[in-house]
Amino acid sequence: MSSYDVIVLGTGGVGSSAIFHLANRGARVLGLDRFAAGHDRGSSHGETRLIRQAYYEHPDYVPLLKRAYPLWEELQERRQEPLYHQTGIIEVGPANGELVQGVLATAAEHDLPIELVEAGETESRWPGFRIPADYQVIFEQQSGYLMVENCVRAHLDLAREMGAELQFDQSITGWEADGNSFRVHTESDVFHADQLVISMGSWAAPMLTGLGLEFTVLRKPLHWYPAERSLYHQDAGCPCFFYEIPEGHFYGFPAFGNGDLKVALHSGGDRVSNPLELDRGLDHQEQAVVEQFLETYLPGVTRRSSGHAVCMYTMAAGRFFVIDRLAQHPGVVIAAGLSGHGFKFTSVLGETLCQLLLDGCSALPTEFLSIENALARQQHAS
């Protein structure tokens, strides 16, 4: 039976980062996953993910974001590969809506640079976008996108260079305490470690039984469309975008290189009972909603889809992550329920989990993401 300082269960966004940070600290670390590095079976795929700092979801996330940005920059420097692309983002919605009010409140609390843009000025600066006359527009320059699969592979490849061991095609079936250490069972092997990181995304719930935590997995399609290069290409100055409209929250990315514009519906989603049986086919009804959004707000984008993909959101109460140490097993830390807005944080969440294990505490405030607070949010929502 192989033995390690730390075993990381799951090598996606958070897991790959945790493996990197643990290896960087000299730990003998093993990463286990059912799928290969940078796979498209979970939540960390689809080419790009937004990164933004004036966080409408809650201002308490900002200290984590302020650390995430330099960590991404350090990673791409070590990797010698562009992973973060700063395009800016326009955030569009009713003046009294969740998005605009949240961005303004967070920017004010943390003194973050944002720009309020008049609707008419928006269409002159970014002529591919249509803005309702009564909507507010905020431009956040220090935003853009991350190359999602490349970020995962960068963390894993650098970790391997520092001595981490990675084993794929390992279907994890459970874990258990073994005195002051732990056993991890897969369908084919048993591994032993002094400490564990559980970061299994949509597969986390069966590993966290007995905690009372509730997660809902949602199916989330992504779409690509050809678009007028002069309006919607990154080289033409097109930013990322996030809209709050009556039909829901929509977000997207400019075309770059020889690729197409990407857009998705952030709201809603069908429940997934078994992530291994996720329907990855094209949902024509959902696609019609996305194309109606494009026709209304990005009229220069064609309605001839050039591709689609399907990922998953693992939702926790109030859309707050769960980042904590298990009280009954102090050698186990978890990251779960990233709720569809977590990838931008994964650089710092991996570092945080590493600190919780090796230092006993996090350098940044994460108490608002504790198991105790997650249970309280569940109670409040019920």
Structure description:
The chain has 382 residues and is α+β, with helices and mostly antiparallel strands. It has two domains: 2-45 and 149-213 and 318-381, 3-Layer(bba) Sandwich (FAD/NAD(P)-binding domain); 89-141 and 216-313, D-Amino Acid Oxidase, subunit A, domain 2 (D-Amino Acid Oxidase, Chain A, domain 2), CATH 3.30.9.10. Helix content is 28%, strand content 30%. The chain has nine helices and 20 strands. It has helices at residues 13-24, 62-79, 98-110, 119-125, 148-161, 229-232, 284-297, 346-358, 371-381; strands spanning 2-9, 29-32, 48-51, 84-86, 89-94, 115-117, 135-140, 144-147, 165-167, 172-178, 181-186, 190-198, 216-225, 240-245, 248-253, 261-265, 270-271, 307-315, 322-326, 329-336. Strands 5, 6, 7, 13, 14, 15, 16, 17 and 18 form a nine-stranded mixed sheet that branches. Strands 1, 2, 9, 10, 11, 12, 19 and 20 form an eight-stranded mixed sheet that branches. The longest helix has 18 residues, at 62-79. The termini are far apart.
